[in-house]
Amino acid sequence: MAEDLIVTRTLVIPAAELSERFSRSSGPGGQGVNTADSRVELSFDLADSPSVPPWLRSRMLGRLENRLVNGVLTVTAGENRAQLQNRAAARERLARILRDAAAAPPPVRRPTKPTRGSKERRIAEKKRRARTKDGRRGGGWD
């Protein structure tokens, strides 16, 4: 499964930049639990990757700073019993993380003043609520 990892239409990570490590998964697995290396660790060196443009790399490094170890992003998948399924899950997880980190920042919100209509609606709702609560004030419960 040495294929390039497609993150977005414009960002493709070559297979040569990904490294996979296999180990034994924890949990139940029957007779093959001690022999099958089905857990997958997929690593990508984001800090030194030539396939990520510098302007995008700085954005991704900033957003992923808590997940990186020396500039390397590592994803683990071990929920399936088959190594092939875990490899596919790890690749999808890595692509999703990189896609989210590469997303454009939201547009800057320019604060505006409330409109006259919204102010009037707010005051009308406050008065309606006050009348409701006023009706609850009854006589004395002595």
UniProtKB/TrEMBL annotation:
Bias type Basic and acidic residues, positions: 132-142
Supply the Gene3D superfamilies for this chain: 3.30.160.20
Domain of life assignment: Bacteria
Molecular functions per Gene Ontology: peptidyl-tRNA hydrolase activity; ribosome binding; translation release factor activity
Q: Where is the Prokaryotic-type class I peptide chain release factors domain?
A: 11-136
Give the span(s) annotated as Disordered.
Answer: 99-142
Stretches of the chain forming a coiled coil according to its record: none
Q: Name one GO biological process term.
A: rescue of stalled ribosome
> Any idea what this protein is called?
Ribosome-associated protein
Identify the species of origin. Saccharothrix tamanrassetensis
